[in-house]
Amino acid sequence: MDFIGLMVQLLAGVVAGNAVGKSLPELDLGTAGNAFVGAGAAVCSVHLLQILVPPLGGMGGLDLGAHAAQFVAASVTAAMVTAVVGLARSELREPKRALD
Predict the structure, then answer these.
(1) Residue 54 above 90 pLDDT?
(2) Hey, which of 34, 38, 73, 74 would disulfide with 21, CB 3.0 to 4.6 Å?
(3) Using CA atoms, how far apart are residues 40 and 55, in angstroms rounded to an integer?
């Protein structure tokens, strides 16, 4: 994993996590929470994808196609994981009553 690829993944995760948090206020984890969950999910998912699909890792250096694929994969995964964590947190905070 190269430095530029890691920065692409972190940036995509932070942007996607905060976009989900601000567009869905009931799932918002706060700015820092959205960024942390998004960045972590992005880096983990792209690393897993690089193991499963080796061309996503690129050939080293500045491979724009590989970085674009990493950005898309990181953004999508970060958005999904941030939404799931936000949903879980909101459900744990205010559980629904079965007999209302």
Answers:
(1) no
(2) 34
(3) 22
- Among 94, 47, 36, 99, smallest CA distance to 73 is for 47
Q: What is the mean pLDDT of residues 27-42?
A: 93
| Residue 30: both structure tokens together | 């706060």
pTM: 0.82
**What is the domain partition of the chain in residue ranges?**
3-89
Q: Any idea of the CA torsion for 63, 64, 67, 73, to the nearest 10 degrees?
A: -130
Rounded Cα distance, 100 and 96, in Å = 9
Count of residues in the chain: 100
Q: How large is the C-alpha radius of gyration of the chain?
A: 16
Question: 59-94: per-residue pLDDT in tens?
Answer: 666 778 888 888 999 999 999 999 999 999 988 887
